[in-house]
Design goal:
The chain has 484 residues and is α/β, with parallel strands linked by helices. The protein has one domain: 3 Solenoid (Pectate Lyase C-like), CATH 2.160.20.10. The chain is 17% helix and 45% strand. The strands form 2 sheets. It has a 30-stranded parallel beta sheet that branches. The longest helix has 26 residues. The radius of gyration is 24 Å and the shape is globular. The chain starts with a helix and ends in an 18-residue tail after the last strand. It comes from Pseudoduganella umbonata. One of its GO terms (molecular function) is polygalacturonase activity.
Amino acid sequence: MTHWLRALAAILLSAAFMMSNATHAAAASPDFSVAKYGAKPDGKTMNTKAIQAAIDAAAKQGGTVTFPAGTYLTGSIFVKSGVTLKVGKGVTLLGSQDIKDYPVLPTRIAGIEMKWPAALVNVYQQDNARIEGEGTIDGDGKVFWDSYWTLRKQYEPRGLRWASDYDAQRPRLIQVFDSKDVKLGGGLLLKRAGFWTVHICYSESVTIDGVIIRNNQDGLGPSTDGIDIDSSKKILVQNADIDVNDDALCMKAGRDSDGLRVARRTEDVVVRDSIVRSGAAGFTFGSETSGGFRNIEAYNITVLDKVPVGILFKSAHTRGGFGENIRLHDFTMKGTPVVLRITMNWNPSYSYAKIPDDVKDVPPYWKVLATQVPKEQGMAQLRDVQIWNIKATGAKTAFEVDSYKEKPATRFTLKNLDIQAEQGGHLYDIADWTFENARLKLGKPVEMEDGKAVRGLAQGSFVVQPRPIKEDPSKKSFEEQDKS
């Protein structure tokens, strides 16, 4: 037998052995029905203890937790190492509307480390866990949305818009925190999250494959993000179908002084084959940029007309951080108003924390949020970004790009663009941008300060118009549409 035939035989034998072992392991994995632990699928009985008992029993043998069809009211549950939580077809996990049913734990929330109510379903400091099935996880979150709006109306006149998101405690739907080798998906319907829907934080080797997210029921829930990848690495997101009222597919890496202290990147992430039906943007970086982003790829993303921005980079003067080696390609935008937006002064009333003098009892996390960041450290730097194969129809503006003079958005390559928009928009404070095969049909040209910063603009109707008035973009108070 020749060497290559022997090698092939060895490979096939090894593969057959691994398949046999996998089949045996799957067959040997026991099921643990929550019914045996007293759970009742009537939508009224509180089943937290019963479901957790089934999970704890399964953790001892590496088993699968199953549910007879029906609706299970529950508070926070915690999936353990080696456990598969199987939410099958016809099964609904219904979140409690009592915040006391979500224990307060150390975590990161909206960019800072603090104690916060646990999610409805948690993988918290575990390895090798699964959440899967064709059933539903329903946060029943309207009561938490309403409590947020009530507090925010009280806070805004006092200059405390920034604090409302941290004081109005609301449970996320699913959180994977400080964990490894986690899989989520299989056709799960995730709906009505009280806060963010899926939050992957400080974790590694996580796959999200096949989730449907529907948060715009019972109203428009504030900050009901779809999938947030937060200071984590080796993440795959695919086959997601998202309808939310804030960031849909979002990369995060910490906020301001606390995010700079932690300094954990989001890196080695692939997001693909997904659709965003509604949300603040199709694919977003930030505004929590402090730890930085590296080696991020997103492709085969469809963004529809209820989404105001297709690709969004957002930060603030106190965030800092960076984004580099980013590849965004094969996006289809249908009626999305803005194709590409970069803003370094996002939503000032939320982004900049200042404690009023008349406030006496200041929570510790308010002090963290209000900690000053030096100007140089607070400027985020974007560099080495590739964007290609972008098709956009029915847009209002092609580009809204505002960076820093001191740290311009650098080395962007945009290739194979096919954009139809009412106006070109503007490109301010950029360096070494290249356009290749840019087919743009624009009602008005693109404005910029320095035409030397861009190459390859003489194609189609994509023409450059010098910026008419010199002004410092860092002084602008551009505020993105704030649905929350």
